[in-house]
User: What shape does this take?
Amino acid sequence: MAKAARRRSPTQTGERQEAGAAETLSASEQLVNLSRAALDVTKKAKRNSKGLNSDNFYANKLATLRADATNTLSTLVQPSPGDTSALAELVELVFSATATPQTRLKAFQDLSHNLRTIWRSNPVPTEDQGLFPLSVLTQANRGYLVTIGRQMNGCFTSGWYDGAAVMMRRLLEIALIEAFEAQGLSEKAKDKNGNYLHLTDLISVALGEKAWALSRNSRKSLPALRDIGHRSAHGRYFIARKEDLETLRSDFRVVLEEFLHHARLL
Assistant: This one.
């Protein structure tokens, strides 16, 4: 039994490594790999005289690959309805249990070409990629912070930089309010009608507050973080670019984490 377990471990390790690698591939690259695996399965089935419409290892493996391919296909950004239909037909042929070897190979070649050209996509980003790690926001145990952070990171990784800047501003505003409330200073952050101040005034009050000793980096970064959000939300001609946010990413993390600490959430 011990020997058998040792023989299985390299395969299990390889499967884990393949699974980890797949997470870093784009959807189009994953679909090419699944299609190549389908070709391999059908060749082995033929070599072992196993039918792909029967209940056997190769038929079940092909069915699993087909399901994975269908799910992966649904995640691709669609160039046009016509392109989508054509690609779906090629996927159907590659993973068909009844296609001839020649038909399957030709479909695989056409599918690979389309996926590497028309349908070429970038690796799917993880949730911690973007402007702020969601793993840190999760520690705060506030679902709305994670939700806003996910939207912010999603906007950034999708190239919607004005949307990302506005969500940065919103997340910063919430962190400031949380800090004022946790320190028993909420009245200082409100106007005469009892409403919380807008971000510009919140930052002014926060910079002058003696209850916390803001770091030099936070004092320096707060105005710039305020301005990028304001420009994206209200600037008539301003269009945020990736580099506008990338230059502020480290400052944003420093400021946000500092106020989450003052809010006793980290």
